[in-house]
Amino acid sequence: MRHWRRWLPGLLLVLPSLVLVGIFVYGLIASNIHTSMTDQHTRVEEGGFVGLQNYRDLFGDEDFRYSLRNLVLYTVTFLVGTLAIGFMWAWLLERRLKGEGFFRAVYLFPMAVSFVASGVVWRWLLNSAEGDRASGLNRLFEGIGLGFLQNPWWTDPDWGILAIAVPAIWQLSGYVMALFLAGFRGIPDELREAARIDGASEWQLYRHVIFPQLSPVALSAVIIVGHMSLKVFDLIMSISGQTNYTTKVPAIDMWVEFSAGDYATSAAIATVLLAIVAVLVVPYLVYTFRQERQR
Amino acid sequence: MTTDTLPPPAPTVAPIGRGRRGGSLLGRSLRYLTLVLFLLIVLIPAYVLFVTSFKGLGDATPARAWNLPTSWETAGWSRAWEQLAPALGRTFSMVIPAALISAILGSLNGFVLARWRFPGADIVFTLLLFGMFIPYQAVMIPLVQLMQDLQVPSGIPSLIVLHVVYGIPITTLIFRNYYAGVPDELIEAARVDGAGLFRTYLSIILPISMPAFVVVLIWQFTSAWNDYLFALFFSNARNGPVTIALNFLASGQLQDYSASMAGALIASLPTLVVYIILGRWFVGGLMAGSVKG
Q: pTM value?
């Protein structure tokens, strides 16, 4: 490039950041993958190369497969929950109702709270005791005549993980609402009017005008909520803790193995987690990169 | 790169279709009814936190779980404050420098990647963005080793470094998207005048950057304040931030609910205050973070 005198100062200015991210993200990912291919199963061992053995052990391990299953269940529930509720709130608020700002602010506030802090109250709410000993939501259900809704929450061996999705949905639905609301506001009124003049029914209007206009927003929401969901850790640590079996996910296993000094296994779990997130995120990044190029 | 992921908010002209379907009295009432119902559901945890934090031993029975305290006691608050106060101070001393440094770096990077581009800037940017999405578990084990080798003290110093480094992608993204909207003429005029990189940045870009700085500062403040994962690996209850202290307080053998709930409120207060005072900007940060990808 002939104009290097022009762009070189710019490159030099961002270089420190690029080097930092290069080392702290890409360098360390490589180093972690390397560790995952050794037999460094205690704190002191150096660890020799064992190839994919740790991965084979992991996927052969019923407990780890249970973690993966939990992660899938949790993510699906979390995604469906936040998208459905977030969309509904945005739809309810979309027509500039009086008091919109107030509703929006309240729906959004859980987002400002840490998972650790919300975990404190949700552990109380999701208390598994039922009947006379019930407190938390189970007691509330009993009190308002919905006693049949009482359940053991996160202690249930099959569906316990879904109880963790409840606070997550509580916390992130407002965020998805804000996204959709911006999407709704971005649809020009003329577009709706035009569709109405053409005689489109309310449903056709949504089907052919509103939904297509909102789909980029929905995609963003899926990526953001999806990758947050795959990384779920704080919430589980503060509600059920690291030793609880029914709510374990790969991020918890990784921490447990790390604490036990089994770095090789821990590194392998972390790499699996990275691969899962990458499957979701990389196509999206490539897609947006291409779109940018086209402009 | 994804400035176009979200359509820009529509200008607030009065919608022509004010009286359209759903605007009937019945429709509106149903809407409000649903909104209020959800409002109450969303506020349940806030009610529990507040009420339980003031309860004394007399209210410990499950039967009184949802009632107001028989007598409002502040013992739980003082127990929580005692345990969390030192950590609160440490958290402030971590979050403020981390947010400031991140914002400055992000502004410089964003400016170059949007307005002073070099060949391959798009690829570089996409590679940067990936750093925002990774589960940090995937770097954690070598990171612990690296920070030891670099002899960064555990606790607050380590956490500042980590929040700055791993904050680079998101802060760069927010500033880049913001600067992409600066009119070309402004920059071109400076270039014609022969202004170099730094003069253009200082005289043209920086003076108009306030909104983006506010968004980024809030974003970094909140995410560093609420972080638990890095804190768990790089600090302990004696030198760590408030999330660690709160978790320690709440997971004790004796479930001290009033102190835990008061603690959760204390630990959330700074971010909630930011949210209440700067709500508009907070939402701006969320939007920017959404174009996160």
A: 0.90
